[in-house]
Amino acid sequence: MIAVACTSAYERLTGGDIEELLTFLRQTAEGLGAEARWLGLGRPPLDMRAFARSYGIGRVEVLNPDDEDAGLDASVELLARYCRSASPFVLVFASSWWSRIVAARVAVRLQVPVLVNVQSVERDEDGSTLRARALAFGGSLTADYRLRGGPPYLLLTAPTATIPQAAPLPSEPEYQEVHIPLDGTGERARRIQVAETSGPRLDEAQVIVAGGRGLGSPDNYPLIQELARLLGGVPAASRPLVDAGWVDASHQVGLTGKVVKPLLYIAVGISGASQHMAGCSGARTIVAINKDSGAPIFRYAKYGVVGDAVELLDALIRRLKEAKKEAG
Amino acid sequence: MRIVVCVKEVLDPDAVNALVLTGQLSIGPDGKTIEEGAITRVINGYDEQAIEAALRLRDAGVDCQIIAVSVGEDPINVLRYALALGADEIVSIPARDLDCLGVARVIAEYIRSSGGADLVLCGRQASDDDQGIVGPALAELLGIPVALSARALSIEPDGAGDGPALHVTVVTPYGEEVWELPLPAVVTITSELGQPRYPPAARAIKARRAMPQVVTPQELGLGPGDLEPRVVLERLRVVQVEGHCQMISGDGADDTAAKLLEVLQRDGLVKL
Q1: What backbone torsions phi and psi does residue B99 show, to the nearest 5 degrees?
Q2: What domains does chain A contain, in order, with CATH numbers?
Q3: Is the pLDDT of residue B243 over 90?
Q4: Residue A103 and residue A151: Cα distance in Å, rounded?
Q5: Is the peptide bond prior to A151 cis by the omega test (within 30 degrees of 0)?
Q6: Domain residue limits at B14
Q7: 0.80 cut: is pTM over it?
Q8: Is the Cβ pair B236, A143 closer than 8 Å?
Q9: Is the ipTM of this complex over 0.90?
Q10: Nearest to A300 among B173, B174, B241 (CB)
Q11: How far is residue B229's CA from residue A79's CA, in Å, rounded to a whole number?
């Protein structure tokens, strides 16, 4: 029995995303008694062998490594063929724009189950079905599902559901490149404008300062930017600020925005709705600043300050500037 | 052109979250059904924005007929709302206990049997199960391309192929991309599309008594065997968060700020 993690060059996964996915894969494979493999589509954006070794993966396969980006239609075709020939028991994906399309389409093509936002999975007593736990209602609830009609079972992991953990013993993964000519699989959808990746990526930032409705007015958002700059971090926002047009969507943290996992996350004037927390609960330390002592954010935070967001931002900025001056 | 918008009725997610936060949400004796009590049923927010996306195409001068379709036990209220917003036709497909692939199958068969669609719009995900599978699954079933999480759409008269094409601005974790899709196509809509409009009063009044066209899965040639769910909900649980927040306070904002920065420095998170 094999369990396969599947990634594509298109996804632009960070090293941290890969570490989470491979940890989830190893844990799943161990639970199922399966061999863990990693399948990459298109040119690998990072050293797959090095990651596979640290995370105890037995085998790395790269399909069509000469392709810059396997393309959506080609990916569906390649994966459907791979499932038919290699018969994996589960296929796990990181949660991405690409994987949501490709996994759903492969599931339809093979008539097998697909589940998104998966936290954990175990084999059922009868051996042929799976039980999986997934997030629901924006992370307020979890849902336990029974999956049947596989294999393969297609699972997209919930972002930050897994804490990366290298294997106790590194593996010596086999490595194989496979070239599959795909004549006649022309891409129908064409990307005519590629996202610019200038500036620091929120999902890679070590320090994030995020503002929410408690800031009161868009005029106060520059304080978030200033504090982020002084801490060497990146500014972010909760969904109400994005929906209200104060901040553009690339700064949104939450289940429907970006999922982040910094060392330090300072949430200012954010109440802590589960949709937002699903995007930042992977932070190592959360600091909450909110004038409502009953705000749910304090349940997630390690440190909390009850008080006026703007006054405290001003004070933090002043203190950091003084410290910088003293340091010369 | 014919635009089919898929809409789902969900429990008001804000009400569910509020009850979770106050520890008052209860799950029924079957372990998987939320006790509705005072929670209202509403149109899934992203689906409302999918209707908005269709209306904006019409506003931009696209000659279109908008059909709202819902699969569920009795989705009459969300369909009436869709009609009030500006849909031309509303279609109810009564069914229960389907998984996402089952819902996609039913809608695909409806679209095929009713003269096809040039564009199919869905919300990016439902706010109850957060799956987001129906859109891409529909695309595969209909054999047409798909783009997810769009915040803007436009019809361009000259595509790369023959005839008009769709330009879709999608939101991804690493920024925005623009995709060109030949029609017909499926597109899912995200909240970055912006605030949906309110129903005009006259339409809202008229929609109150409107009845949807009802099409059963059987009429679409689908038997129970075709729709047997592969993903079956067995249990819902409220996520428990244990708080252990250390509160920091000082004599005024400056003192509090200094104390906060001190603990963060001690933890190695901030360098002063």
Answers
A1: -95, 180
A2: 2-178 (3.40.50.620), 202-327 (3.40.50.1220)
A3: no
A4: 14
A5: yes
A6: 2-227
A7: yes
A8: yes
A9: yes
A10: B241
A11: 23
